[in-house]
Amino acid sequence: MFRWKAAAATIAIAAIALTGCAGGGDDSGTSDSGRADRLTLTAIIGPTSYDIGQGAEYGNRSPFFQAVFDTLLQKNGEGEIEPWLATEWEYNEDNTVLTLTLRDDVEFTDGTPLDAEAVVGSLERFRDGTAPQAATLAGKEFAAVDATTVTITQPAPDPSLVNLLSIAPGLIQAPSTFDDPDSATEPIGSGPYVLDTAASVTGTTYVYTANPDYWNPDVVKYDNLTINVIEDPTATLNALKAGEANGAKIVNNDTIPEIEASGWTIEANELDFQGLLLFDRAGTMAPELADVNVRKAINMAFDREALLDALQAGYGTVTEQVFPTTSVGYDEALDSTYEYDPEGAKELLAEAGYPDGFTLNMMSTAAFQTTFDLVAQQLADIGITVNYTDPGTGNFITDMLAPKYPATWMALEQNPDWQLINFMIAPEATFNPFGSQDPQVDEYITTIQMGTEDEAAQATKDLNAWIVENAWFAPFFRVQGTYAVDANTDLEFWPSNAYPSIFGFSPKN
User: Fold this and answer.
1) d(CA 117, CA 82)
2) Which end of the chain, N or C, is less packed with Cβ atoms under 10 Å?
């Protein structure tokens, strides 16, 4: 048990004023088109650039891009892939060539056709650019077979490709803007809305009007869309209470009771997990971590329920898996692998040759001081002394991936299976900075990539179980991602993105 508790840490960021913000209740009337007049949302971060080769990103930036650009494929409210710009898609026999059939009735808002050449141009621009997910298309070649057919050829099967085409890598930008320096702030796409640059303030307020020629008008529920960037959680809460929005991303879950008491509805998903990443599994920097019993002892040191209560006000679900519940490999039984047992953890440390414990170097940051204090306390209870170093502003991720530390606390997104594997498990994965590798893990990964659907599913289950049993990580819990909507608004929240789809909002009748 904890000897003390404290509220979860928050990042203090100066509030950004609401500019040109329409009140949620005042502008919710129905227009002659049968749509509501305006949807006003808040976001915690704005786009760095509308040029998909530079700034295209989903997560909390997704609504800005989804408003003006279409993706090749789309996700529904269940997270399932559906046709969008591409009406059909099919792999060849060895899954190295994906053929997409495009709609033939779509134009960009500048009047130019959205055809196979435009799609190839956008995919190449994303692949060769600096957007955060650019590497996901590395090594892939794109070709326009005819005006409505595109092929994507890759050196080896990529089980994540179809999913990628429904998010940032699948965004399609008008080629007429590729050489236009203003494309960073004046996007041209085929999406449901057009950015009103005269009414918008970069970094603060983004105002959009419905695309009058949108190819799929039935999914557009509002004539106008405004997204206000409010980074400060307190300012967001105040905006909600004042009725200055219809929907808002909630950062601090401990404000949920107050939000609900104000008449707002909470929608939620669980995308991210928090816990320790035990990077140095070969013991090159911390020899102790090479012993699986030490890693198991670390898992047994944490009272996950108490951590969830202290750090997230109980909003979330304890877990010992990095694979999400939506994964074919998820197994609820694995979440009971390591019960909270400090005495049992001490016994495992003694068996590993560390009866008096040891010192573990890790990094910290003042923004999450409560979290780091509780982690140190729980590890101290089994004899592990944490020696923290603050790498300084802006260096937390850089030093983590250098790598400069054998283990660290971190919050990471639980991606779809193949993306997750290449994000934190595979030898070259970004969040595997020591390049940890095991023949059994390699075998599972190969089967997931090259095997049949049934073989891949079983290998994913086996990989997840192996990762848990060998304690490659020490997850604490999945965090509830929270979004609030007012009494005038319905929302179908995506299970697979931090911010809702703009198509998920609709006015209440």
Assistant:
1) 22
2) C
